[in-house]
Every structure is written in structure tokens, then in C-alpha cells.
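Incident log, structure service

09:12 report received: a user says their structure output differs between two submissions of the same chain.
09:20 pulled the input from the user's history:
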Amino acid sequence: MKSAQFEKLGPPTTVLTLTDIPIPEPGPGEVVIKVNTCNINPADIMFVQGMYGIRPELPSAAGFEGAGSIHTCGEGVQMPEGTRVVFITIGAWQQYVRVPAKTIIPIPDELNDEVACQAFVNPFTAYGMLESSGLVAGDWLLLTAGASACSKFVVQMCRERQINTICTVRDDKQINTLKDTGATEVVNTEKDDLKAEVMRITAKNGVKHVFEAVGGSLGTTALECITRGGTFTAYGMLSLQNMALNTSLLIFKNITVRGFWLTSWLGSLSKEEMILVSKKVMTALATQQVKADVEASYPLEEIIKAIEHMESPGRNGKIILRPH
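09:34 re-ran on a clean worker, output below:
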């Protein structure tokens, strides 16, 4: 089978190669999944560069998230061949994967494969951050990287909860898309002063919470937009640059700064809570209460082209890989 692998750390467009490896065999409690679609997330790119919370053991396959159908089952697992499932693993960008059966999530019939392969990392992150935020109807939330898939999920969930959102973009083409998605306000940081716009929008009060995905100077500015007693949640670093923390702001405005990593949040849930969260997220996607955008899909053989598209500015949807 074909597998996107790397033998050294670096930019994926430089170090990834397609390699022929055997189709895995399932062990006890495991399943082998025929991969139909894979998602390309920023976390995947950072993993290949050795900049993610999980370090690769080289050589390594790439990709964390996908959707497919049951190919074979190991001892103790009884699932019909062809059952459609969502999975997470290290090495999703290949034609078959082997994963523990207890970690997969069945796909509702209403979800196509291009949406299903996005059903875990971003919507679960959006849901988890909102659940942990304490935000209520009428509050203001600032989202950097507002046109990202995760931010769009947050915006749609906030719309249902009547939470106001301000999204940052760098391209005017993304403004109407975000407004259609449900964003209250959108600020192009290439043209406008973010802090001045936030203060104008919120009548000089600032936002109660920031979900920050970029780091660097944008993250530093976003911190300045928070009201007294507000909270700053960092969950990404798309710029690959650390942000500067203004100590005076933290002290005199009593701002809380924290991080969010989906792996840690999921680990804090009981089995019952995990089942409930999975049901809520899958139902929201299946009923299109929240929607997942797709801009383009590529065969696995065009992995480099797909990543180049994913990293291009002004994108309004996910880039999907099709291993089969």
C-alpha cells in the first residue's frame, strides 16, 4: 500500500515521500481501516517538522485524522466489513491504517467522506474550548485565524449559543464567507488596527475571551483586546513564532492565560462524557447545524500539491486527501 512518510524532520513539501509498505494485520482488539479520505490540519504540518506535542519516531508516517471503512477485524472485535468510521492515529495519510477498535467513531449515513474526515480534530476542539470557556449569550469572543476550519466551527457553535464573535482574516475574500457562517464582525488585520477595531465594536469594553491560533505579534495584540478579568486561550501557533506576554496587562487587568490541547481535554473526560460529546458533535454535523467546508481534494499521489494548496493564503475550505 501507499503511505506518506518522512525519514527526517522538515517542511512536509520537502521531506515527505510516498512509500510502499505492507497492509497491516489487526491484533487483538484492533481493526484495519481502508482509508477513503484524510484531513490536512496545521497539527499534521507541525508534526512533520517536529514542532508538535507528540514527537515522531523516525521514520514515521504522517497525518492524524481520517475516515474510511472496516477492512478486517482482530480477535475480540465484531464489526461488519465496510462499516464507515472516523479514526485518529499517527499515520493517517496512507491507504490502510490499524487502530484500536475502541477509538473509532461510526459515521452517520448523512455524512459524506469529505465531511466525515473532518469530524474529529477541529469540531471536538471547538466544542471543548467553548465548553471550557464559561462564555454565555451576549459575551464577546475574539478568534484569530478566523477563516480556519476550527474557527468556523466555533463561530457556528457560538451562533447557536448567541455568543458574539470577532474574527481576524488577512484577505477580504474571506469576510463574506465568515459573515455567512455566522460571525458577528470580521477584521482584516492587513488593513485595520485590530485593537482599535475591537474597542470600537465592543464600545471600548474589549472581549471577554480570546481563542488564539497564530502566536507572534498577532497573539500579542489579541491579548491587548481582552477586558478586565478576561481569559486568553492559546491553542495553535500557525506563525511558528512565540508571542510576547505583557506582564502589566496580566497583573492590572487580571487576565488569565492558558492553553488548550485536544489530547489533554479528551483525556480529562470519562467514558460516558466522551460518548456524549461524540454524539453531540456527530449529530451537529449530520444535521448541518454546523457545516464543514471543503475547497479541494487530491489523490494521495499529489500529496505535495495538496499541502501547497493547504498552505496558500485566502483559502476558504479544507484540503482533503483521497488515498483510494
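09:41 both user submissions now match this output. Likely a transient worker issue. Closing.
09:42 reviewer note: The chain is about 30% helix and 25% strand. Residues 271-286 form the longest helix (16 residues).
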